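User: Could you go from structure to sequence for me? I need the amino acid at each position, not a summary. Structure tokens:
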């Protein structure tokens, strides 16, 4: 490269949905930005994904929703099925409505809009290898350029948006940021985009994404069936990480053979990937660095949707970078505000759903059928607790639940207990300390709630 610029306000690592959004808003905020991705430009955005995204994030960011070649189809809501398929919970609130996108075209649009907003250097085919430090503060990255040369690039702030396997998270010198993500906090997925002739097969429920909970067929995860257009679907499954090497087999046996059946189809795309399914990292920032999207475990733990939060986080990180740089101090003192914004918004929702996810993962199919069929925990309740942190069931509601759940009192007790803990944790997250000196105290309160739920999972019948 002839004139490689080597110093910036912000370096954004990864030009996926999180990184492109961060670069776009940092540039719009007047910052000098370098955006880097290891992929060639034409492939950025091409990711194995369910391709579903809600409408809300486009309003939040005030950017165009998917249209034209990016848009595959519109979605009215989600349908959640019990393992025996006897009960279907239909969710049609605004959070569930959205789009199925053509992932490459969508990613290319976000990238091009970031570049058009004035990113001062874009390096594709460039692998970020390591973080640079000046004293105790991140001061840039080491990269391997397109031509194989290794070099250092400096910046006041690095935004790491390099995805779940972030190489930088592992290199960060920080007591605040977790380097390793426990295996139980992620799932492995495999999916195909299957095209068929409409004479042979019809798309089921073309206006809804369908999710089937099944402990035996998709252990730890779920089966999904998402319409793509009138003659193709995005269909797959997720399972615990220790099913590595077997997820494709599970897919063929329990998903393809059940829902597609015929070999008279064209497989447009196939592949797998890992998704974090937990609350965000304890801290998504430290001196001179912020992490966004999958790199920071900012994915909805219930359904694995991470496009929306990665874009929100990119926006929040960009705004925080601007304030810190304007204040002339990019230490954690000024980047803590990014944590505050994340934890008090979608972080609160994800922590609450994380507890639900932990419980759903240990219930067997009979318990899932029983609990969901008898409305011991309903879709509306889940949405209300996780989004508002509150749910006040009337005495009548509780009495009805008690009668319906009477033949499985332990499950009834456990789900009631879970509901209380979900509320508790959501409230704690909404009170995330703006003052970093109060963080350890806050963290220990959160750990206590997790411990209570883990205790219930180990010994469900003894919880009072
Ligand atoms: C099978 C599957 C299905 C999913 N379905 C959905 C869904 O339906 N809806 C939804 O909302 N979410 C879904 N997700 C999750 C969603 O895809 C992610 O949460 C989202 O893409 C996160 O965006 P990101 O920007 O954080 O990371 P990514 O999109 O992973 O982008 C990371 C970028 O960083 C680059 N990079 C990585 N390492 C380096 C490096 N060392 N140097 C330079 N560049 C680097 C990569 O090339 C990539 O472009 C699914 C995930 C999987 C695996």
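Assistant: Here is the amino acid at each position, in order:
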């Amino acid at each position: 490269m002839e004139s490689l610029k080597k110093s910036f306000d912000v370096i954004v690592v990864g030009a996926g949905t999180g990184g492109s959004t961060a670069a776009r808003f940092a540039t719009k905020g007047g910052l000098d930005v370098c955006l880097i991705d290891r992929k060639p430009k034409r492939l950025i955005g091409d990711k194995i994904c369910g391709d579903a995204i809600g409408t809300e994030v486009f309003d939040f960011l005030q950017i165009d929703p998917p249209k034209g070649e990016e848009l595959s189809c519109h979605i009215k809501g989600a349908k959640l099925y019990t393992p025996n398929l006897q009960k279907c919970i239909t969710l049609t609130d605004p959070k569930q409505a959205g789009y199925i996108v053509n992932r490459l075209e969508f990613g290319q649009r976000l990238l091009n809009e970031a570049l058009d907003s004035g990113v001062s250097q874009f390096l594709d085919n460039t692998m970020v290898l390591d973080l640079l430090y000046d004293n105790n503060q991140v001061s840039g990255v080491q990269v391997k350029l397109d031509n194989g040369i290794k070099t250092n690039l400096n910046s006041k702030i690095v935004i790491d948006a390099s995805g779940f396997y972030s190489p930088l998270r592992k290199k960060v010198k920080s007591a605040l940021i977790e380097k390793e993500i426990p295996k139980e906090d992620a799932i492995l997925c495999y999916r195909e985009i299957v095209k068929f002739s409409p004479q042979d097969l019809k798309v089921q429920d073309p206006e809804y994404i369908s999710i089937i909970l099944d402990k035996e067929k998709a252990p730890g995860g779920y089966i999904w069936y998402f319409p793509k257009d009138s003659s193709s679907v995005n269909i797959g499954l997720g399972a615990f990480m220790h099913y590595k090497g077997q997820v494709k087999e599970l897919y063929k046996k329990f998903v393809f053979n059940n829902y597609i059946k015929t070999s008279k189809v064209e497989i447009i795309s196939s592949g797998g990937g890992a998704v974090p399914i937990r609350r965000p990292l304890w801290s998504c920032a430290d001196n001179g660095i912020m992490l966004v999207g999958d790199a920071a475990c900012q994915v909805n733990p219930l359904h694995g949707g991470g496009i929306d939060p990665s874009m929100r986080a990119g926006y929040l990180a960009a705004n925080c970078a601007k304030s810190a740089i304007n204040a002339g101090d990019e230490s954690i003192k000024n980047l803590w505000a990014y944590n505050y914004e994340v934890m008090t918004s979608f972080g609160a929702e994800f922590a609450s759903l994380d507890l639900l996810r932990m419980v759903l993962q240990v219930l067997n199919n009979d318990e899932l059928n029983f609990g969901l069929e008898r409305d011991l925990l309903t879709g509306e309740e889940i949405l209300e607790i996780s989004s508002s942190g509150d749910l006040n069931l009337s005495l009548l509601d509780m009495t009805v639940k008690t009668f319906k759940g009477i033949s499985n009192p332990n499950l009834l007790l456990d789900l009631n207990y879970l509901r209380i803990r979900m509320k508790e944790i959501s409230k704690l997250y909404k009170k995330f300390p703006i003052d970093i000196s109060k963080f350890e105290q806050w963290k220990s309160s959160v750990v206590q709630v997790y411990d209570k739920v883990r205790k219930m999972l180990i010994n469900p019948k003894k919880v009072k």
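One structural detail worth keeping in mind: DSSP finds eleven helices and 18 strands in the chain.
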